[in-house]
Structure formats: C-alpha cells, structure tokens
Amino acid sequence: MTEPVAFLSRAEALIGSPEAAAVARGAKSFLEKRDTARDQFPLFDDMRERARSIRLHSLANLDRLLARFADALEAAGGQVHWAEDEEDANQIVSRILGASGARTVVKSKSMVTEEIELNSHLEGEGLTVVETDLGEFIAQLAGDTPSHIIAPILHMTRQDVGRLFSQKLGVPYTDDPFALNRIAREHLRRIFLEADAGISGVNVAVAESGSIVLVTNEGNGRLATTAPRVHIALMGMERIVPRWEDASVVLEVLARSATGQRLSSYTNVITGPRREGDADGPEELHVVILDNGRSRVLAGETAEILACIRCGACLNVCPVFRTAGGHAYGTVYSGPVGSVVTPGLAGMDPWWELPYASTLCGACQEVCPVRIEIPRMLLELRRQAAADGRLPRWLSKGMARYAAVTNEPARWRRAKRWASRLSAPLSSRGWLTRIPGPGRGWTVSRDLPRPAAESFEKWWRSNRET
Amino acid sequence: MRRDAFLSRVAQATLTAKLPVPPVVPDAPLELPPVDLVALFRAQAQAVNAVVHGPVTRHGAARAVAAIATGHDATRFLAWDDVGASGVVSALTAAGLQRIDHLVPSGSRREHNLSYLDVDVGVTGSVGALAESGSLILSHGEGRPRMASLIPDIHIALLDTSRIARTLAQWARENGDSPEKTANLVLVTGPSRTGDIEQELNLGVHGPRHVHIVMVR
After folding, report:
1. Is the complex ipTM higher than 0.95?
2. CA A424 → CA A95, A99, A421, A443, distances in Å?
3. Nearest-CA distance from A458 to chain B in Å?
C-alpha cells in the first residue's frame, strides 16, 4: 500500500525555505489586490453568480457546445483536432508542425501544454521550443517547473534571475528587474519574428462564433499568435461557453480574481486564421481539443471542478499552499483546485493523497469566482481513497478503532480516563508539545491542551444539582 | 469519425455528471449607477499606466499624434490606413517620420516580420473603449495590422469619445456578434506589463511600454 509520503516529504523540505516564503509573500499580495478589485466593483458578486451559472450550464451541455464550436471555427477557416489523451495531442501537434516544415516554435503560457508535456515531446523530435512568457522563459532557462498558475517563478529571487541570465544568455550580471525584462525582450524579439509556428493555450472558447480568447499581460500571447505562419492552440475540452456575452462575464471575474486587474493588458479574441485581405495574422489556425481524462471527471462526482477558470485565487488563499508552495504538490495543477483536478485527470494512483493536503477551511470556495465547492469534492475524494483501501494501515485501523470507541459510552468513558492518565507524563504546564507515534505529525508545529483530569461528564454529574 | 467518438464520450459523461444546480440569474443586464464615462475612462486608463490626451477635435488629432511621436524622438511608424481622423499619416511624415509598409508581401513572411523590428510608433484607431477598466477595443483586419499595437515601444490610439461603454459585459451584450466580424479583436488595457520577477511591476515586456490614447470628440 502506498504511504502518503510524497506530498508530506516534499512539503516538509519546503516549509520554512526561502522558496516557500517567496510564494507566501506573492500569494498574499495577489490576494490583497483581488480583494481591492472586488471592493471597487459593485457588480463583482453578481458577476460571480452569473459566471457560475454560465460555467455549470456549459458543462451540462458540453457535447453540444463543442460540436457548435467546431462547426463555427471550421466555417471561419480554422481546423479542429480531437485529442483523446496526452499522446494523441502531442502527435497531432507534431503532425501539424511536420506538415508545415516548422523548426522553431514560440510558446505562450499554457497549463494544458504542461499537462501533456508538449515541450519535451517536441524537443525530442528535434524542434526548438521557446517559452515566451517572462516567467516561463526564465523557468525554461533554469530547467525548473512553474510553481504557480499565474506567476510561474514566484519562487525565484531577482538575484536568481540575474545569475541565470548572465550564465545562459551571456549578459553582464544585473539584478534590476527592469533591466532583466529588457534583456528578455531583446533576446526574444527576433525569435518571435522568425518563428515558424506559435503555440498557445485557450482561456475561454466561444461556441457560437468559434472564437478562442487568450488573456495575457505581456503581449507574448499576441506576438506568438500573430507573427508566425501557423498558430496551434491547445484547449482543455471544458474551456467553453455558449456566447461572446457569456465569455465577457467570465472575463469580468477572471483577471480581478487572478491579479486584481480589472482586465489583463491584452484580451485577445481570435476567430479563425488571417482573412483574405487582412494586414497580418497566421495563415493557419489549428485548435486541438483535449480530453485526457476530462470526460471521466465529467462523468463523476467531481465534475464541477471542470468549471474552473484557472485564476489561481484558491492557491493564493489556501493556508497549505501558502505554507508549502506549489512545488510540494508535485504536479502541474497545484493548490486546492489541483488537489481535485490532478487525481481526476491523472488517476487516484498515485495522486490520492493530494485531497489530504487541505485543512478543509473552505477559503477556496469562498474566494472562487465561480464558487466551486472544492471542500465537498476534497472530502469525496478522501472518501474514495478510504473506500479503495488506500490509507496506510495504522490510519484506517486507527480510525476504525476510534469509531468503535466513540460509538460505545462505556468505552468512551474508559478511553477518556486513559487519555488523561497517559498524557500526564507527556505534558508540561497543561500542554502536550510532543506526542509519540502516529500522533507526532500533530505536534510538530502545534501544541495540544492536555485532556482535563476530570471529564466534563463527571463534572456535570457532581455540579448540576447545586 | 474521431469527432463523433470524442463527442459521444462527452455526451455520455454529461448524463452521469454530478453537477450542482446552477444559480438562477436574471437575464437583464447588470446596471451600475450612471457616471461621466469620459472621466471614468480617463481615470482608469491612467490607473493602468496609459497616457490620455484630449478630447481634441477631429482636426486637432493629427497634430496631437505628431506631437506625441516627436516627443518620444520616434523615427519610424506603422499606422492603420484609417485611424478615425484625417491627416494623421501626413502629419507624422511632415514631422520627419518614415512610414513602414504593413502589407504582407507575397515573398518572405520572415523578412517582412523583421522589417517591423525598427518601428518605434504604432498608430491605430479603436472601435470602442471600456470606462470601468480603461480598455481600448481594437478590431483588426484589412488595413488594420495587429502589429501596430504590438511591436513598437509606443502605441498611439485614437478614440471617439462617443464609443466609450461602461463594462466589458455591457459592451459584449450590445455587440454580441463582434468576434465574428474579425479574425482578431483585442482589448488593450494599458501597456504590456509583467510582475514575474518578485512581483515588481515592469512595463513593456513584449508589447508597447507606452500607450497614448488621444480622445477625439
């Protein structure tokens, strides 16, 4: 039986590290900006209700919306590809690039391409793949993985970036963020303009018009989808709404929840390739629609997680994420949403432990722009893990014994007496600071009050008459 | 065939999907208390680091654009054929700037792209704007290159003040077919920005560092 050690050991290594501290600072700052944006927009909560309604309706009618989207996109001159899984998607992209003779590919930030590990697949075929979002570009140079949906290098300092640039790009060392930014701009400029193809994700797709919407702040998402001859967009199949008007509601809450911006710098609505007579734009537009486990998730108890719009607010608010950081989760999708999505897409084995990486405090649902019931689904996944016998023996046996004891008054009374007696030598000044055995985890970072010498029940019997 | 198999699997999944009942929301648009849209747009565009000029008259627009470009010591510009006011291109060339051709030649796309490397200024019109977020709405197409608001360090956009809407949701409701009309519609909200390095705001990472909006009455 697998032990829930992977998350715990990764988290243990990260807690208290400079990386975790940087993630915590960043998450807090995002959240404060989000709260300000909410306070400044009187329609925010109404928009959230609308966004929730739109997303849930879209999931309930997903097959029809996808069919409509594909028809509209094809009518606009785009090409639609259906990818059942990761391997399928990678092969489709390879085929498109191969047919167009592409050698160099520029990429705009996309979680889906990380989910399917597209970069390593394409590099394995000899293509040059360049990430162009500043954070992703830095992560790629460093051979690192992103630690946050919105801010991939939240875990790196400006000195880290300065050293990396001077090593990898051969520029003089600087740790001035503005100078580092200009270095990246200069370096990537020519690459953008000479690239054969651009690859992007999709933030929202519009079924009625066949449009895809890409949201970026840096402009890399626009350059990568304008300069090269071919644009390939990878899209999780759930990323769809019926009409442009519905997309606009999602966009009203997306940037506000993610970064506290009213809108991101660029909201890029693409409907097909360059049209006859257009001044610029790609000659070919391919949209790859990816299932990769999503239909399995949709069919089950955690279907609602597919309503997620990937703003990252639940990460920023989560006490576990803020303490351990994104890398503790060991997966592309971290934080509360990742703890539901990852076991769904990639399977409970080995990801069943992620739903336990939560205090169930409910802050994620509270902050979510589409109010997804994340705690309900975390509990559901825990229930499944227990039912499948995935818990370590000491825990499942322990819980069974606990249930047996608490269900029987006489046993419960005896247990209380023993707890009080046994805890006496372990406690100091009324507090338990270290419990041995399986209870150790509880007291690593917190103290427990020791059980009272006299139980409430006993106290009640002797005091209620007076 | 792939499509059919894919979609029937999705259809099958929706049958057993455990989805909460969606909240019932009114179909009516959400209203905000009325405000002066020009003033709100100006304040919000400035809040996202755009520079707002005017409102000027249609005749004054060309002079305003030329003054902004020369103020940045610009030498080359890329402009839409119709920016919403007359005389803009001739005012720029009269001020000594060289216009870069935007027509995609039949030859090498790469060479043509590279010719944009030296462009300092892009001049565009706009089909509308959003007061609540300080955004410009650009509809690209024939004679309206996407690159003009993307590749240069300076983007100058002309905006007819009568086209300012309140929110994106409101504009989209009134212009439901806007994405179908063009292959590329872009909402520009301030200059290109990043906070990727220690969350410190930096402008002009891949797109323009300066966005000037010339409001035209």
Report:
1. yes
2. 70, 75, 5, 16
3. 45
Tokens of B180: 């179908």
Q: Which residue has the tokens 């023993």?
A: A418
Decide if B50 contacts B190 (C-beta within 8 A).
Answer: yes
Q: What is the CA radius of gyration of chain A?
A: 26
β-strand B76-79 against B121-124: which pairing, if any? Answer: parallel
Q: What percent of chain B has pLDDT over 70?
A: 98
- What is the distance between the alpha carbons of residues A397 and A394, in angstroms, rounded to a whole number? 5
Distance of residue A118 Cα from the nearest chain B Cα, in angstroms = 21
B-chain residues within 8 Å CB-CB of A249? 169
Alpha carbons A55 and A49: distance in angstroms, whole number: 10
Spatial CA neighbour of A377 closest among B83, B49, B18, B29: B18
Rg (CA), chain B: 21
Q: Beta strand B128-130 with B164-165: parallel, antiparallel or unpaired?
A: parallel
Do residues B144 and B151 make contact, with C-beta atoms less than 8 angstroms apart?
no
Angle between helices A62-75 and A44-60 in degrees, nearest 10:
90
Residue B106 has pLDDT above 80, yes or no: no
pTM confidence score: 0.93
- Chain B residues lying within 8 Å of A273, measured CB to CB: 183
Q: Which CATH number fits domain B35-193+209-216: 3.20.20.150, 3.40.50.10420, 3.40.50.2000, 3.20.20.80?
A: 3.40.50.10420
Measured between CA atoms, the residue of chain B closest to residue A302 is B18
